[in-house]
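Help wanted!
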Amino acid sequence: MILSVLLALPVVGLVIVLFLDKERHVRQIQGVAIGASLAAFVWSIFMCMAFATEPSRGPMAMRLEYQAPWIPSLGIGYHVGVDGLSIPLIVLTTALSLLSIVYSLRITVRVKEYMAWFLLLETGMLGVFVSLDFFLFFGFWEIGLVPMYFIIGVWGGPRREYAAIKFFIYTLVGSLPMLLAILACYFSMPEPTFDMVKIMQANPMAGAGVKAALVFWAFFLGFAIKVPLWPFHTWLPDAHVEAPTAGSVILAAILLKLGTYGFVRVILPMFPEASARFADYMAILALISIIYGALCAMAQSDLKKLIAYSSVNHMGFVILGVAAVAARGGVMASITTRTTALNGATLQMVTHGIITGALFFLVGVIYDRAHTRNINEFGGLAKQMPLYAGIMMFACFASLGLPGLAGFVSEFFVLTGSFSSYTLITCLSAIGVIITAAYFLWMIQRVFLGPLKERWADLPDMDWGEIVATAPLCVAMLVIGVYPKPLIAVMNGPLTAIVDHVTRLAGLG
Amino acid sequence: MLQHLSEFIQEYGSLILFAGFALLTLGAAVLVVTARRVTHACLSLLPCFIGIAGLYAVMASPVMLAFQLLIYAGGIMVLMLFAIFLLERRAGPITAANHYVFPAGLIAGLTAIAILGALQTESFRNRELRPPPLEMRDRATGEESWYDYYDPQTQTAGEQPSTNLRRTGFYFLTYYLLPFELTSVILVVAMVGAIVIVRREKGWVAAGRMPARSEERGVRSESNGTATAATEGEEEL
Amino acid sequence: MVSPFFENLAWLIPLLPLLACGVLIGWGVKLHRKIGDRVALIAVAGIAIPCVIAWGILASRVSQTFGAPHEAGTHGESARETIEGPEPFEMAVEWAPLGPLSPAVLSPVTRDLSPAFDGRLKVGLRIDNLTAAMLAMITLVAMLIQIYSIGYMHGDERYPRFFAYMSLFCFSMLLLVLAGSFLVLFAGWELVGLCSYLLIGFWFQKPSAASAAKKAFIVNRVGDFGFLIGIMIIFFHVPSLDIRAALAAAGTAAFPPHWVAIAGACLFTGAIGKSAQFPLHVWLPDAMEGPTPVSALIHAATMVAAGVYMVARISTLYVVPQVAELEVFAGLTSLEIVRYIGIITAVLAGTIGIAQNDIKRVLAYSTVSQLGFMMFALGMGMAGWVAGVFHLLTHAFFKALLFLGSGSVIHGCGGEQDMTKMGGLRKAMPTTFWTFLMGTLALTGVPLFWAGFWSKDEIMAASWAVDQPVFWLGEFAAFCTALYMGRLMFLTFAGDHPRDHSIHAHESPKVMTVPLTILAVFSVGLGWLGMPGDHNLMHHFLGSSAPQIAEHAEHAVAGGAINIAGIEFEIVPLCVSVMAAGLGWLLAAVIWGWKLVDVPRLKQAVPPIAWAHNVLKNKYFFDEIYHATFVRGTLALAAGCGLFDKYVVDGIVNLVGWATTRVFAGLARLADTWIVDGLVNLIAEAQKLAGRFAAMLQTGRVQHYIAFSALIAALIAAAIYVLGGHWI
Amino acid sequence: MVLQQLGLQHFLALSAILFSVGLFGVISRRNSIAILLGVELMLNAANINLIAFQRYLAPPAGLNLVLDGQIFALIVITLAACEAAVGLAIILNVYRVLRTTTADEVSLLKW
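Answered by r_m:
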């Protein structure tokens, strides 16, 4: 019940917004949008408390579960549930949606449609994290896609149409094989059902060699495009560069997590043998993503493109963690190291969401003032905008993995966890950490340090709205960095269960 | 003889009553369909409704008897009459001759045969068509009454309102609440629709949405040829 | 047992500087406007209280070590036995649950797979004698430097921000030293790197400072890469990442020897990065861009020493018996790697120091050289361990003194750093001169009084016992030290007036000179603690923290067993080192003091000297080499990737897009016009025909419609009747 | 015709005839109001059927929908009323515009 209300809140906001008039009620629209997202956020906090109080029936079991027959004849049920893995992501989604809506109060063009699309987007995202039924999962997956297309397409930068179309078609092409894979799972179950929990327990793809491989690669393609993993990442820089600030925050912070969430929720538990068989390829792709993403970021002159490629780099770590869990060859890998890798991967999702969300807000801040994102045009901003420089450097250091901040914790766990599964690949990806430090510091040096260019002599510092948008994220980075125990304790249970499930079924000695 | 008669009546009374009312209804119906003057047709609706009401009485449904007479005879027929008078006031006595009589008769006959034929199919034939015995007794008090019957088969004493009318009311507001409400909605919608169709606002004539009263006249010669000169002063139609 | 009063306050030591930093960052600017320079007192207080606690801890531990019933004190004890110092004080809190907290959570199949680790990653403090000594040194030096910088940084517009960064640095350095687990050690390690980045780039308007800061951080990061891999190896074998547990498990089945050797080597790469050893030393000289107190605190006394401290802390990994023989890299055992890297750095930096004109660059290279000495000492296994740590402590004091002295010289000369322009400051700045002299004598190892002599001499003695050739290289490095320090003294202080007449030197204010004198006292007094002899206090105190050899392991240890009573008093190393120092001083005096030799003329006469001088001046062209190979290589690779990504990967996507729009659409259009279209037209015509017939029915008369429908209904009924109603 | 008990067949037959008479009227009548009368008859025929079914057929077991025929009939009556009202409104308006009530001439909706 709680989860259905959570899903309903943004929709209610959406409906109210739709009824309001475009010209006369702009302030009311904004009010309703903020109200709806705030309500969703508060409700997600309440959900956490309810999640905590409900006694868990075993590590793998879902809590706050609500199951109702929807289309019984096809085995489709409205089955929603939450466990340690999706709780942090849900809170992250509601929090960041709230912050981005607060931040996008300065949007004046077509406010009504913007807010409507945003709330629909929030519903889509929450739906994916909450649904335990493939039909529902795929439905919300697609719902999450359309608003993003419009947000980029209408409120974006100069090349927005190209970017929006590319983003939409790319992800759609990805989700088609996924749909086929879902149907394959549906039909291969003894009594056909879309229920993910049943599929996970029944493990339908146990024997089927080629079929399991095909289904695995179909899901892999669908999620890899979203992550984005190396060969499928070219839509990300364009989408980010052209999206409005709040749009690219949500795109970076949450939409990428749909892909990685898919990896941990769908691919690992449901196809243990297949993932064990292909874990090496995943690891290699992850390594390429990490190194390649970092190097490309270094070559960029556009601030947003740089951060977009840094997202490719960070998400590479997540996939490395996931691959490490299912690694068959790991001579020394034990349950603890595999769970550490998975803990790191899941934590990386949350921390990357927070950090990159803050980074994109900050890029938005400078873009709104200087109307350019070319790094070489800036210089010595630290003198002119000390507060902005402080927060930006704080976020950059968090992103490059400074201990005591969130970025380090997750990367540390992924690296230490996957070291025993893939020794050489992990060492090479640790080089990624150096390159990340290099391009971030080089960017900071070119933008903030050095003599102040007279062209920016009059830039005002951050205003109230921007601070409200970024401050909570910075606090979150610090808290997770210093004391991640509460967050990891929530995740550790279900993730241990998943690793146990995978090791047991895939026979990883 | 009296005894015999009462037994006979006991036995076939209802059949006789049925036959009488049936004849009445059909005769009136035929009249409605064939009368030259529409007013006559409308008026002959009355005996038809009375016949039907009688049939309801035979079928032990006093509520229907009452409503039939109230609404149909009292309401709808009168409404028709008003409409006819309104028209006749403008266009003189309206006669409605029949045309395509043959094809109409053929089709009507065919449908009658089809339905009657359907009655013969075995899905109806083996139906136990004899009326279940009725005890004409007031449920609450239990003694004989002419207006209330008590069907032991289906109702158990006491738990529901005693008389048929009370039970209808009870059913209306419990098991059949939704249809009841929906009908009220439809009723309102119909009334509003009717009013909207015939209303005439100031300025519509000027705006060309409606033909002024004067132009209305000349479009088509009325069937009886006489176009009464309508003066400006007449009140709205 | 003395009640661990101070030790219980240990968690306060790192916390107070952090608090000070928070206050200064949050309200620094406002306070600065209100109470001016006194805002620095927050920072000073933030380090003073931990200093008191640290010295308290030191006192309590000293009393425990020496006060304990003297069971091991009898003279002539066999060298084998290790000193059982007081139990290390531990304090830990759970940081993150990893993996199955109890095997019950797992399914029976995988239950036996899970290791003994209960899944609770703990993070905490650990204090033993080595930590206590380091704490005392760091807090005292930091306090003195902060007091000094009140004067030095006076008038800087981002004054409070400077002290905020200094307190942040103190926090991270203390965290590093107190670390009980590798995680905290690594966290402190990187935070220290961050603070050095912030402080080097403090005057960020200067592009050179900004790039120096970036260079420092990235080079440190390269070192940390090795450190991280070391931690990864350790994490697998000892998931709790607790240092003591890791050291205890080293060599046993849980932590097999070859992994121990590799871990040791990797952790040492971290130290190379941080302590600016041979391959990664390029960032330290550039770090001189930062204000002088920063150079003093970070790039002389504490941060660079962190690498040495870390190697000291984990040196068990090097000296565990089975590991000592295992070749790890290019035929060298991990211990030999440490030793040779150390000595190479010492010699390299020593030679470069001679050719530098900037006073701070000279001191920077001198630091690198001394760090080389310490690493070289630790690289000699058990024998050199205490010597290395002792040299670390003494070096911190007199190097800090030298830097602060050079700071007051620069401050006095109005920001001038080039020695060739200075001269005759002896008269203008007497206190600075005398304290500077104390520091120089200590550094160059002039015998008897000064601390440098005792600690360096002990290293030489240890190396004499362990590895002869390395000893002579060490002596050569000592000679170079004496040479460039002498040159520095004569260039800056000798003579009667500054060569560049625009300089009007004036003595620095008292707030700067007082710390100088205190440091001078320490740089002299500390040496006496380490005098060789049976009651060598330093050996006795630090011995307990020395690497504990697993009891059952026998002692075929390279470099001989630990010698509790200190190295036997050898006459030869003593004379050689004294001679080296004397020779250095003499040569410096000859060339720069009495100016008997005209250097430019000498260079024309002997071209190799000119060539050598040029090479030394350009720091063996390391910067250029690194820039050409690594920096430009990575940038080229990055640009390549960028282009590759833009044109190839994106190209493919756009190609696919173009293909579908152009090629397939064209084909589709052809097929469409002939086949599909034809069919459609055919159907359309048939449709029109049917349409015309249907129109007939549409008469517009209501009655016709009813008639038709009734007719159809009747026909259907008839059909049902005919077909016998079962098919409904 | 041998006298027999008054059964359901009788009522159904009667309503069938009444229905077809009404249908005949609707099809053959020229005047639109007369058509409405025909429609009224057809509705009444339906009502008779309903009440007959209620009276003769036992309601489905368990459900106490014993009066559904009657309820339904009442609803049909109200609908008939609405239908009549709206029909007359339309006719009046047609008359006002086209000045005729005969159904044949009103054929604007031709295809």
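OP: Thanks! One thing I noticed: The mean pLDDT of chain B is 75.
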